[in-house]
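tool_call: predict_structure(chain=1)
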Amino acid sequence: MSTVIDEVFEQFQKLLPPEDSVSTAPDAESGSASAGTAGDSETAASAAASEKAEPPPEPEPPCRRIERSRHGYDLELQAPPDRLIDAVSILDRAGFSLDIVSGADWPKDNQLEVLYDFFHWDGPHHITIRTRIPREKPEVPTISAIYPGALWHERETWEFYGIDFVGHPNLIHLILPDDQEGFPLRKDFKATDVDA
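tool_result:
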């Protein structure tokens, strides 16, 4: 009998199918072609290095099962912002509840990430949905129409990371003062002296 995790995994696979496998192995014909003359040692060395270089790793599938005993959750889904509502709706229909919404800052990738953690009492089962967005325009749709409890989580995530939850009815400060400048959990935030 299929568990709720199996059912959700199957629905996520339909929503965001894994990328088609693309061979990254060097082409045999192009690898045998000479890259230059015998006297051109720099070109020859470059060609030899590229032949020995390992191919880049295959991309992670958008949905993958996770070893719960090590990570604390069962499934992880990487969803683009335009598929977030569809993914969250799948969890709602399957009886999952929202646990937390949080953020992460990836300045080297010039991205922010929103993390949504959900749980189901029958396992208990835990699922994480991650969505990455550009730092220049950090926007994701609010999930509050599906999970009203997300309103508080989204406000806090907006307040600390500057992520705009499009459609949120009351995106105002929750913890920080109204005149707060910058977003304290971004890695480029510079703290200033504050009078206590």
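agent: The two ends are 59 Å apart (CA to CA). Proceeding to next step.
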